[in-house]
Specification:
Elements lengths: L17 H7 L7 E5 L6 H12 L5 E6 L5 H13 L3 H10 L7 H9 L7 E6 L10 H9 L5 E7 L5 H4 L4 E4 L1 H4 L3 H10 L6 H11 L3 H14 L8 H8 L6 H10 L7 H7 L9 H9 L3 E4 L4 E4 L1 H11 L4 H17 L3 H11 L2 H5 L13 H13 L2 H6 L1 H13 L3 H17 L4 H16 L6 H15 L19 H5 L6 H19 L6 H12 L3 H17 L3 H18 L2 H18 L3 H17 L8 H5 L12 H14 L3 H17 L3 H17 L3 H15 L6 H4 L2 H4 L2 H5 L2 H26 L2 H4 L2 H11 L4 H8 L3 H15 L4 H10 L8
Parallel strand pairs: 1-4, 1-5, 2-3, 3-4
Antiparallel strand pairs: 6-7
Helix pairs in contact: 3-4, 5-6, 9-10, 10-11, 11-12, 17-18, 20-22, 22-23, 22-24, 23-24, 24-25, 25-27, 27-28, 28-29, 28-30, 29-30, 30-31, 30-32, 30-41, 31-32, 31-41, 32-34, 34-35, 34-36, 35-36, 36-37, 43-45, 44-45
Length: 834
């Protein structure tokens, strides 16, 4: 029987069965709670109610409602939430941007090391909307590890990988857990003052499936009309029970806030074109008392139920176009006024209002991580705005053009640099504004002259002349090396001109550094260091490498630091310094990448690490994407692709696939020619010689080697041949000019000796390869005891000592006591034994 009526909009008493309460209380102790059920099962209401009431007094609650938005935007909001828990980790994640397949390991590592100083519950509501923003590896680490005092609560409409639900410390509630039984449905109605017969309970449960949203709607129907709705269509229920019973003003209000997943009164007042003080009572009451609009905190933010919002948005599409455009324009204005240019840009582009996009403050938008759709939007803006509009907002135009470069749209970037320069020259801007604009465009245009240092320098000097001491728009965080770990590889363009190129760098880089507050600081010094090293002057190279490193560290230029560390690692092999090599390979490279965690820095670190691993014959330990040859402009800037191609080619030859390299050689040489990359062409010829040598085609091998030598020897570049001495076999001895051969073979010998020492350090350390007794004998050898003394010390025969010493020599790959002592000297783990 019906015991009372329910006034429209009055609040519903929350209902939790004893069974549900027992389960939800587990959120207080579980490391991770996963609640997986379709919309309308009460996940959000249950979690918020229990956490608000039961959390310890000093605990923190961080609630992230995941909206339907671009993946990059969703990831940013996640990172900002993490910042509130661990500011350093959140800032690193924010800088790194949305994770791709390569970044996921690094990002997972950061999340695994989160520090949480107070008991904190992180709730990710509507998790299904953000799940695609990162690989499952990242989310699994968050759920499985996190920080010691961090509790993660995942509320999602989609299924979660069952492996996660079985992990220790994970509490899982599925659809069946959230569904009300017939008995619980009866209790729910009783709590609302309605007593149902057993037949009515069975009917309502059959129509709702125990779904709390559907039960709520059916209860609304019953209390207002005395009847249940005979339908299982939740959208039909929502329309009949909620939407159709709203007044015209209430419907209009919901339509106006529908562009947002949630809203504040100030935000809603803006959408209605009024001051917040004049916010109408009907909208305030609807927001505060409607069963299907949730209040966050103390009523500062309001979130319509997803089913209601879906219904409202479907109605919005039927509204007359003039009204729809007015609402979307107001939403875009809100985003623009609240420092969310991406949201405003998306809506203005949807409306085709391009001039307003130029009026946005786009300076904070990221250079390196433009999504494809945003890059297309940028091009549309430039194509569809007038000359007057571009000149009126020339600061934004310059930034937009530069973002095209970051998105890899190089052809369009060059085109718009030229077109905007032509517009600026003919413009009637003030002299100061024109000089500023022309200076910025001159600096951007210098990138179109890559890699002609002299031509780039002309434009850099012009930019410095026009801008004076005013800094450019280029950010210190942008990737100066474009992800290439070798400045020499990037900027050596013409055989026989290396010294002139170095001089050009010295002359022109100061102008660039002055304009950009030191962006790329140390880069020109690193190129000089690389040139010295490749000429075999290792001592002088090290001085310059450390100078470059100091300058780059001073300006936090991680990309230059990575290149300097690579050069120090190559020098460590040359000198056989295993400790320094290990420190660089396993520590410093990745530390520099994390200082400015751009994707390009991570890729640069992988490339540098791969180079070092190949030099010690460990190509199998390189990053998987390099071993796969997954090299393209979605992953890398064009300027670093040739370096990656050479590494992949060498990997193919080292792993017995020379024919594969010969198949791709033409493509590599073509790109090297396009980019005027002399080092890529030279290394490609070396690899081609090695590949033909491997398949016993000595004629082609000799021709390729001659090509490489002709490119390298005029600039005295010997080290590339020394570092590939083994792959080239007897070719060098037969075809290299005698004057250069001596330099190359001397360097190759040192590299082989150094490599052997480093391999012993990394893969043949005493503790890992010696037996316990051999280890004891080795320690006494290091203390310079004789065999008789060792026999006496250990109480064993001299013959036994002799046998142990021989086994030690064999395992450690040495032939004498001094060599063995050197190994122990080079290994800090055993320094105490002397």
């Amino acid at each position: 029987m019906r015991t009372g009526r329910h006034a429209k909009g009055s609040a519903v008493t929350l209902f939790f069965s004893a069974r549900m309460r027992a389960k939800l209380e587990g959120m207080l102790t579980a490391r991770t709670t996963i609640v997986s059920a379709p919309a309308g099962y009460g996940k959000t209401t249950a979690a918020r109610e229990f956490l608000d009431k039961l959390l310890p007094k000093n605990a923190a609650l961080r609630w992230l409602t995941c909206a339907e938005e671009p993946a990059s935007t969703a990831w940013k909001r996640f990172c900002r939430t993490i910042q509130k828990i661990d500011i350093q980790a959140g800032s690193e994640l924010l800088t790194m941007g949305q994770p791709d397949a390569e970044m996921r390991g690094v990002i997972a590592g950061i999340i695994m090391e989160l520090e949480c100083m107070e008991e904190t519950w992180l709730v990710m509501d509507d998790f299904q909307n953000i799940k695609s923003a990162a690989h499952d590896t990242v989310w699994n680490v968050l759920m499985e590890h996190g920080a010691e005092k961090l509790h993660t609560v995942i509320l999602t409409r989609t299924e979660i990988e069952m492996r996660m639900t079985k992990k220790p410390g994970v509490m899982y509630l599925g659809q069946d857990d959230m569904r009300l039984t017939e008995g619980e449905s009866s209790e729910y109605f009783e709590q609302a003052g309605v007593t149902l017969t057993p037949d009515q309970v069975r009917e309502v449960n059959r129509n709702t499936g125990g779904w709390i949203l559907a039960l709520n709607l059916q209860r609304e129907s019953y209390m207002n009309s005395g009847f249940f709705l005979h339908t299982t269509d939740i959208h039909k229920m929502m329309r009949e029970i909620v939407w159709d019973r709203l007044s015209g003003d209430e419907r209009n209000f919901l339509l106006r806030v529908s562009p947002f997943d949630s809203y504040t009164f100030r935000q809603a007042a803006h959408m209605m074109g009024m001051d917040e003080e004049k916010f109408p009572d009907y909208a305030r009451v609807l927001s505060l008392n409607n069963n299907f609009i949730r209040q966050d905190g103390i009523g500062l933010t309001f979130t319509p139920h997803s089913t209601l919002l879906s219904l409202v948005r479907s109605v919005f599409e039927t509204v007359p176009e003039v009204e729809r455009r007015e609402i979307l324009s107001r939403a875009a204005e809100w985003y623009a006024g609240n420092k969310q240019p991406e949201g405003a840009m998306y809506l203005y582009h949807r409306l085709g209002v391009y001039d307003k996009i130029l009026a946005l403050n786009v300076l904070g938008m990221e250079f390196e991580r433009m999504e494809t759709d945003y890059a297309d939007i940028l091009l549309d803006i430039l194509e569809n705005t007038t000359t007057e509009e571009k000149l009126a907002h020339h600061v934004s135009v310059v930034k937009i053009i530069f973002m095209l470069f970051g998105a890899g749209r190089y052809e369009q970037f060059g085109r718009w640099c030229g077109e905007m320069t032509a517009l600026a020259e003919k413009s009637e801007l003030t002299e100061e504004s024109k000089a500023r604009l022309m200076g910025e465009l001159a600096l951007l245009s210098s990138f179109t002259k890559y890699n002609d240092i002299a031509e780039m320098g002309v434009l850099m000097r012009r930019a410095h002349e026009l801008l004076g001491e005013k800094p450019s728009l280029i950010s210190m965080n942008d990737a100066w090396t474009f992800g290439n770990p070798s400045v020499l590889f990037m900027y050596h363009a013409e055989t026989g001109r290396l010294d002139s190129e170095l001089a050009d760098m010295d002359e022109n880089c100061p102008h660039y550094f002055a304009l950009t507050r030191g962006h790329g600081n140390g880069g020109e010094v690193l190129m000089k260091a690389e040139a010295l090293f490749n000429r075999g002057d290792v001592d002088a190279a090290l001085i310059q490498a450390h100078k470059a490193l100091y300058q780059a560290e001073n300006k936090r230029q991680g990309c230059v630091c990575i290149g300097a560390a690579l050069l120090l690692g190559r020098a460590a092999i040359f000198r056989g310094y295993g400790g320094e090599f290990t420190d660089i390979l396993e520590g410093r490279l990745y530390q520099y990448a994390r200082q400015n965690a751009l994707k390009s820095n991570r890729m640069e670190t992988d490339l540098a690490s791969a180079c070092l691993l190949q030099l010690i014959d460990r190509p199998q330990d390189m990053a998987e994407w390099i071993r796969r040859g997954d090299i393209n402009e979605k992953r890398l800037f064009a300027m670093s692709i040739p370096y990656a191609q050479i590494l992949f080619g060498k990997y193919l030859i080292q792993t017995g696939k020379p024919e594969s390299w010969l198949g791709m050689e033409g493509m590599v040489l073509s790109l090297a020619e396009t980019l005027r990359c002399r080092m890529a062409a030279m290394y490609a010829s070396i690899l081609t010689a090695a590949a033909y040598w491997a398949i016993n085609n000595t004629l082609e091998a000799a021709a390729a080697l001659k090509t490489a030598l002709d490119m390298a020897l005029p600039d005295r570049l010997y080290m590339p041949f020394a570092e590939n001495r083994i792959l080239l076999g007897a070719l060098l001895d037969e075809h290299c000019p005698e004057a250069a051969l001596g330099e190359i073979l001397a360097a190759a010998k040192k590299l082989e000796t150094g490599k052997a020492a480093i391999l012993r350090k990394l893969y043949h350390s005493p503790s890992s390869v010696l037996t316990e007794r051999e280890y004891e004998v080795a320690k006494l050898v290091v203390r310079k005891l004789s065999n008789p003394q060792i026999a006496k010390e250990l109480g064993i025969s001299r013959d036994t000592v002799k046998t142990h010493v021989q086994h030690i020599y064999d395992k450690m790959m040495v032939t004498s006591r001094p060599e063995l002592i050197n190994i122990f000297d080079d290994n800090s783990t055993f320094a105490h034994m002397k």
